[in-house]
Amino acid sequence: VHPNVSQGCQGGCATCSDYNGCLSCKPRLFFVLERIGMKQIGVCLSSCPSGYYGTRYPDINKCAKCKADCDTCFTRNFCTKCKSGFYLYSGKCLERCPDGLEANNHTMECTSIVHCETSEWSPWSPCMKKGKTCGFKRGNEVRVREIVQHPSARGNTCPATTESRKCIVQRKRCQKEGKGKKNREEKRKKSNKDESKETRQESKGRAARRQNREQRENNNKTQPKKRKAPNKEQDLAPVDTAH
Known about the structure:
Belongs to the R-spondin family. The protein is an alpha+beta fold.
């Protein structure tokens, strides 16, 4: 072993030197050179940093640089994320997306163009005018549909979701507002009135009966009591003359 090479290293190094840092790494760790000013120092990492990709060999695992426009990559020719100003498409970083695709500024990728999609039209509504379905001859009826897929930036815009047309109906009178309620109120008042009338009649009947009873009692108090008629059989009894 070279005098400048040590095997008692820190930070995952298998061998190292005071001047160049790590020279080799422990198993499963990746060796990468980091530049510090004009100097490069070897370090051992569990995963490669941004802008690098890992390659494994029997003797050493190394981190290699991605292409200049890649932020992260799987191999040198297959990027997984692009640097600012580039759009990812099929592992490549492009300044402009190919025809038929559009740039997604949120994901910084080239994606398929999405056009608007709508549901089927609903049935036509009843013929109405000013919110009413009666009291007129000519009105309007409408139908609606829903948006089921919103378009992307370059997709076809959505069409109208409401449609209106003229309509003609047989003129009919509108029921006056509150008429049904008024009829119910009149019936309730009539019912209460009938009940009150029956109650008054019953009260009058009870009062009349009570008055008649009191009158009979007063008459009985004011009339003189009749004397009891003598017993004729006792008056006709024979008189004892033996004495």
